[in-house]
Each structure stands twice: as structure tokens, then as C-alpha cells.
Amino acid sequence: MINPSTNSKVKVLLVDDSAMFRASVKAGLATKPNIEIVGEASDAFEARDKILDLKPDVIVMDIVMPKMDGLTFLKQLMGQYPLPCIMISGTDSEKEAMAAGAAGFVLKPKTNSDRNMFITLLGTKIAIASSLKRRAPAAAAKSPEEIKVDGLVPLSGSTVKHGRVTPNMPTPDEISKLTQRSREGYIVALGASTGGTDALECVIKSFPETMPPVIVVQHMPPVFTKLYSERMDRCCTVHVKEAEDGDRLTQGLCLIGAGGLHLELKKDAKGYYVRCTPGEKVSGHCPSVDVMFSSVADVARSKGIGALMTGMGADGAKGLLKMHNTGAHTIGQDKESCIVYGMPMEAYKLGACSEQQSLANIGKTICKRLSDGW
């Protein structure tokens, strides 16, 4: 984890059977001041020893390797010595990697022109992963068949603040009522920062195609918001896309604010649409959750429902309070399930939260509140 007070570097172990590729990645990441490659390994067995010796903060590991593939090693590692792992591969194996417990996935560059983008994305993923805290499952695998890489000592005393959280899903009755709520002009707004990419995925995955429109601000730089939106669209029932200026909001659509542009809700005779405009940072960010929430309060008023989730700082707290004061139902992610209990804590301290919920319950709670009213 990056320690802001000491500016300590994130220690990374690089695992790939290609010495040439490792050298290329190492040279690329050398330009990142907060990242240090502390070791390299060519296969899972060498990686096992390096993990125990070097105690890295994050592992970057190829999926296709000799002796044992990266996904098999990752599954065993998560049950014995959990560490944030960024998986890399020459083919799009993101779903398999995330299902195995990866903290992120990056597609290997196919050409030299793709290398800079790969290094930039990998550096971002490493920075995010360094803030994740994991622990071994309560019932870690113990059979000889499952533990093929021995010698890893289970961790103790750590806290679950990340993982592939399984969302609690809305009931069929709640789902059936959402179409009417969409016709009545209800809208959902979600805001997040550090740890938010996975948290938002957990929540949005619980939304059915009958969902009223959803708008999202996740603190993320330009380009990455588009890549993230495309990834989310592949794994969610609702249609997810990066917001573009003038986009109309319809049932079953989720718009994610583009990096570098403020996202605001607007309304005309035809219904809701969004404005995406450049501007000065608000609450330290562009896009700003405060800007989005404030616009929802102005336009949707009591027909808005907002959720502020994991993130550092206070962006979104004042905007959520404004939504709350105009009759919207507002939710703050609870401390126990946050990667960083910053933004939702500030909202709670202001009295902006109608309720606090765990990450697993936020999506279902939104659907239930829309179904039952408030």
C-alpha cells in the first residue's frame, strides 16, 4: 500500500516466463516513481519462494506459464497467502482472472505502439491494487490435491476490505415493479473513488434490465473510464457505457462519467439527459461526485436515489446531503465493507445518509427502495 506520509513505494513481484517481456515491463514501470519491481520469477514455484522472501505488496503475473498456469496458482495463493494480483495475458481472459480472485487484469500489448498504453494501465492497476487488503477465506483449502504449491504460510490478523463480493439480488416482485418506477421518472446515482471499480461492479451487477436509468461517477482518468465502461458492459445485465454529452437516459441504461468531464443530470420535455463538460475540479475531482449528486437533487428531487461508496476524501458528501434534503433516498457504504471509509464517512457525519449498507446489500437495497418507495 502507498503510504502518503512516507511516500513509500509499492513493492511489485513480476511473474512471467519470458525474460524479454519482464525486462520490457520493468523498464516501463521504472518511470513510475511510486512503484518498485523488487523481484522477478519465471514460474509459480519460483514465485512462491520470492513471495515469502520479498513480501511484495502486489503481484503482476502472466496467465500462460510452464509447470503451473497463473490462474491455478492464483486460486491456491488466495486460499493460503492472499495478495492483490494483477493478471496479464495475450488473450482476453479477464472474466476468468477476476473469477479466480485477481484484483485486476490487463491485456498484453500486441504491438510496440500499444506498449505505452499497457504500461500506463498496468501502473494504474498496481496503484489501485496496493490499497486493497485481503485475508484468507475462513475455510481455506487444505487437501493435498488443492494445495499443489506448498510452503505458503496463511496470513492472520488482516481485514477483508476487498474481494469478489457476491451481491444480494432483488426479488422477482421487486424487479417487476422497476419498470413502472422508470416510467415515473426515478433515477439512481452512484459515486465512488478508491476501491470503487470493484465496488461499483458488485452493485451494478445486481441491477436487472428493468432498472431505472443509472448515472455513475468513479474517480478515474480519461481513457480508463471508457475501458472500464466496456468491461462493465460485458459483465452486467444493464447496458453500461461511458457518458457522452447529450446522452438520453432510458430504462436499463447505466452511464459512467468520462474522466476529465463533469457529469450533470438535465431534463427537458423529452425526459432526462446528461451534460458532460470540462471544468475546474470540484471537491478535488473532475468528474466530481458532488457535481453529479447536486444536479440530481436539482432535477430529480424526491425521485432520486443516491449511494456514496468507498473512497478517500469527502467528494460526494455535500451533494448526497443536498439529495437527502430534497427528499431523495440516500445510502452510504458501511465502514466494514469499504476499502477506504472516507467519502461515505464524511456523508454520514453530515447526516446525509438515510441508511448505511454493506457493499453486498447496496444494489438490493436500491431495488427494494425503488419498489417499496420511501
Provide keyphrases for this structure.
35% helix, disordered N terminus, alpha/beta, elongated, seven-stranded parallel beta sheet
Task: Report a brief summary of the structure.
With 374 residues, the chain is an alpha/beta fold.
What does this structure look like?
This protein is an alpha/beta fold and 374 residues long. Helix content is 35%, strand content 20%. The strands form 3 sheets. A 7-stranded parallel sheet has the order 8-9-7-6-12-13-14, with helices on both faces. The protein has a 5-stranded parallel sheet with strand order 2-1-3-4-5, with helices on both faces. The chain has a two-stranded antiparallel ribbon with strand order 10-11. Helix 7 (196-205) links the parallel strand 6 and strand 7. Helix 6 (172-183) packs across helix 12 (359-372), helix 7 crosses helix 12 and helix 10 runs parallel beside helix 11.
Uncertain ranges: 1-6, 133-163
Per DSSP, the total helix count is: 12
Q: Provide the β-strand percentage band.
A: 15-25%
The overall average pLDDT, rounded, is: 86
What shape does the CA trace take?
elongated
Radius of gyration over alpha carbons?
Answer: 21 Å
Number of strands: 14
Largest sheet: 7 strands, parallel
Distance between the termini: 40 Å
Q: Name the helix and strand elements from N-terminus to C-terminus, one letter apiece.
A: EHEHEHEHEHHEHEHEEEEHEHEHEH
Structural class: alpha/beta
The residue fraction in helices comes out at: 25-40%
Strand order of the largest sheet: 8-9-7-6-12-13-14
